[in-house]
Design brief:
Structural class: alpha/beta
Largest sheet: 16 strands, parallel
Mean pLDDT: 81
Helix content: 25-40%
Number of strands: 16
């Protein structure tokens, strides 16, 4: 059932394809059943596909490029939009159309003008929870910051000049508008020492639970530490890049009471000192951790047996890096046991790191595994033979590491009983006779029946090889059709 299925973009695409091919006599009933099953899915996933006429009753997210397109969309029957991205300045007229057509709107991104913001605030979109986009007229930001009618807004992502954003947020800090605002986001250099001091001194600043876009460009380690000591501050979400702080003492930075409720963190780590401070911190509430590892020399050395509250709490872990100079022993830590969704990208797959992962307990509970980088054939085949991967249902494998024989090993792996979604960035062509023979065997394998999706990107396969898979009897009809178009 959809309500029991992990939401992701691939499943959404497959559902739309399935319903478009549904017999017309019962399609409406099938769509109504799908709507009920999708009720718990994120609205952001439920967007129109690039090709073909959308199934409007299922759609909850729209990106609109012109005012004329918006007018047409607001007049479309059975379309109930909850997330709207406008790629043009929001006029009062456009705001009125949106209000009339989609009163259940929860997220709105636009180029904010004074007229559009005034109409939005006067109309009182009480269901709005998220606002995004650049403020092109400062008065627009002031209207929003003063609005008491936008009482549901908890996230405001401003963009544009930092000083303009600070001026708008000072209006919010010193007033009563946006009474439930909790998360501030900015792509520039909003959070400098002085502004964080202002937030800390403001009773409203202490109610924030999330900051997105904290960088060291205008912020000092002392200023950040001082902010984290703010009495009553409890952050649940933090995204920061502190590349320029390699030479500063960072011990204890993540011990601050303000971070002990943190559930999601995206952080760029550029020094071993910063890494140690993070790993030694008592962040027991952290569930989602996105690491960008970089810098000169090895970053990420950590004794596998050393206790870490961070490693022991994370359920979704993404590790990215661009230089391949990172220690990976911590992947075998016995404390890394709760991870269900793991993504290892780029250089982080080199030099024994996959082997380190296999030496620890994390692999036993994985449901999603994304391997996007260079791996040795030995590592690929060793993973395929690992009997602890019985919970894995979604696999993404790297392009440079997988040939037909390795793919065959994956599909025949006895432990992968739950595997249903495979994404291959680009397979090597089956040029050699022995690889051609593997492909022919694969095309008749009943193992293909377990796959609900088999995604291939790139022009990876010769026409005659594509025809083999297009006629594979155990492959889903939609997947056979995809290969038929390649042949």
């Amino acid at each position: 059932m959809l309500s029991d299925t992990l939401p992701d973009a691939r499943r959404w695409m497959l559902l739309v394809k399935l319903l478009k091919g549904w017999p017309r006599s019962s399609r409406d009933d099938a769509i109504n059943t799908a709507i009920a099953g999708l009720s718990a899915w994120p609205d952001a996933l439920r967007a129109p596909q690039r090709r073909g006429r959308p199934l409007w009753p299922l759609i909850r997210t729209m990106t609109v490029k012109t005012e004329a397109e918006l007018r047409e969309a607001t007049q479309t029957p059975d379309l109930s939009v909850r997330r709207l991205i406008l790629c043009f300045p929001l006029s009062a007229k456009a705001a009125e159309w949106v209000q009339g057509a989609w009163p259940e709107l929860t997220a709105l991104s636009a180029y904010w003008t004074e007229d559009g913001a005034r109409h939005l605030t006067d109309a009182g979109f009480t269901g709005l929870t998220e606002l995004f986009g650049p403020v092109i007229e400062p008065a627009a930001g002031q209207h929003i910051a003063r609005s008491t009618s936008l009482s549901g807004v908890h996230t405001w992502a401003l963009s544009g000049q930092a000083e303009k954003a600070r001026m708008i947020l000072r209006t919010w800090m010193n007033g009563e508008g946006l009474p439930n605002l909790r998360v501030l986001c900015h792509a520039g250099y909003l959070f400098d020492d002085a502004f964080l001091d202002e937030l800390a001194a403001s009773p409203r600043g202490k109610t924030l639970t999330g900051l997105d876009g904290v960088t060291n460009e205008q912020l000092s380690p002392g200023g950040f530490r001082r902010f984290l000591q703010t009495d009553g501050l409890r952050l649940e979400r933090l995204r920061l890049c502190l590349e320029g702080w390699q030479g500063h003492p960072l011990d204890g930075m993540f011990d601050a009471p303000a971070l002990q409720s943190l559930r999601e963190m995206q952080v760029a780590v550029y020094s071993q000192r910063f890494w140690n401070a993070l790993m030694d911190s008592p962040l027991r509430s952290l569930r989602v951790l996105d690491l960008q590892l970089g810098g000169v020399g090895e970053v990420g050395s950590y004794p596998p047996g050393r206790a870490s509250a961070v490693l022991g709490s994370v359920e979704t872990l993404s590790v990215r890096g661009d230089r391949g100079m990172f220690a990976g022993g911590w992947l075998s830590s016995p404390h890394l046991a709760k991870v269900k969704h793991l993504s290892l990208n780029a250089g982080y797959l080199k030099d024994g790191r996959v082997e380190a992962l296999m030496a620890g307990p994390a692999i036993a509970g994985l449901e999603t595994l994304n391997l996007n980088g260079n791996m040795s054939s030995e590592a690929v085949q060793a993973l395929a033979k690992d009997e602890r991967l019985s919970s894995l249902h979604t696999l993404q494998v790297p392009s440079a590491s997988l040939n037909m024989m390795m793919l065959n090993a994956w599909l025949r792996a006895p432990a992968l009983k739950s595997l249903a979604y495979v994404r291959v960035l680009r397979l090597k062509n089956a040029w050699e006779p022995e690889e051609k023979a593997v492909l022919e065997t694969l095309s008749t394998s009943s193992m293909l029946s377990r796959l609900l999706d088999f995604q291939v990107e790139g022009t990876w396969i010769q026409p005659d090889n594509a025809r083999l898979l297009a006629n594979a009897p155990h492959l889903h009809p939609d997947l056979r059709a995809r290969f038929r178009r390649m042949s």
